[in-house]
Amino acid sequence: MATKRRPRLTEVPPVEHVAEDAPVFVISIAAELAGMHPQTLRQYDRVGLVTPGRTAGGGRRYSARDVALLRMVQRLSQDEGINLAGIKRIIDLENQVDALRSRIDELLVEMAEMQMRATAAEAAVHASYRREIVPFKSMSIVPWKDFR
């Protein structure tokens, strides 16, 4: 009698109510989703390529983001021929780029807020004029003529 084998998972099942970075997959499921052996996942954890969440008992729990990262590691290693140290450097640089992009977004928001405050302050100054200062918009240069 043949045992019925569970079909191989090819992609992370969509779970709408769980965050992408929620550690929900045990190592065997994460390994199957990533197309790797569980021991490979343990090695990648030791090297620092992926950092799964941990249960109170110390068991690894992988998120959908971790599984995507594992697939990228596998692609870079097998298809591109990059060693694990190179892959770790690539991951670190991508994380740094992501952090810098987030900082740029924060600075753009801050800059827009500062611009709004400056515009409001300028409007308040202009509103405080009591016509003591007359705005003069056009400056023309008129040649001087000696009419003697």
TrEMBL record:
InterPro entries: DNA-bd_dom_put_sf, MerR-type_HTH_dom, MerR_fam. Residues 90-124 form a coiled coil. The keyword DNA-binding applies. The keyword Isomerase does not apply. Pfam families: MerR_1. Residues 24-93 form the HTH merR-type domain. SMART domains: HTH_MERR. Keywords: Coiled coil, DNA-binding. GO terms for molecular function: DNA binding; DNA-binding transcription factor activity. NCBIfam families: HeatShock_HspR. This is MerR family transcriptional regulator. It comes from Epidermidibacterium keratini.
